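RECORD TYPE: protein structure
NAME: Carbonic anhydrase
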Amino acid sequence: MATPTQANLKDKNAHYASNFKEGQLALPPAKKYAVVTCMDARIDPAAAYGINLGDAHVIRNAGGNARDALRSLVISEQLLGTNEILLIKHTGCGMLTFKNEDAHAVVEKNLGAAGQQELSGLDFQPFPDLEKAVEDDVKYLKASKAIPDSIMISGWVYEVETGKVNQVL
Ligand SMILES: [Zn+2]
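PREDICTED:
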């Protein structure tokens, strides 16, 4: 029995594939850039950020976190030729709503001692200040020896309330 989400995938994909005509795109992103943004369900990166199929890498994780994205960014730049990063966090981010100790308490309650042990010491990397978090992540990427100085890096905030994007730096 397919779950509703599995059924949705099959149905919607069948429709998508029946109209699909872009199977000849090259592997390296045509516009040579990578976007790091949050996994938040309210963000549609392709539409909101103007990304056409084949143009860019979109790396998503909780918070649009640069440290989490580093592995993918190195692959994007060194193996697939991208030379610019757009770091885009957003208003109303879940990462603004908790502290590390809160997340660890939930983990311990829901997953028990074994789960807590596996995740002990993990920094969930929540942040209390949105613009400062954008600045910190851009600073981290610029300081990283894994990201060459030639890579253009900018930081942005997307507003889930308006759909607008604003440059922080
Ligand atoms: Zn978020």
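COMMENT: The pocket of zinc ion is lined by residues 38, 40, 63, 90, 93-95 (CB under 6 Å).
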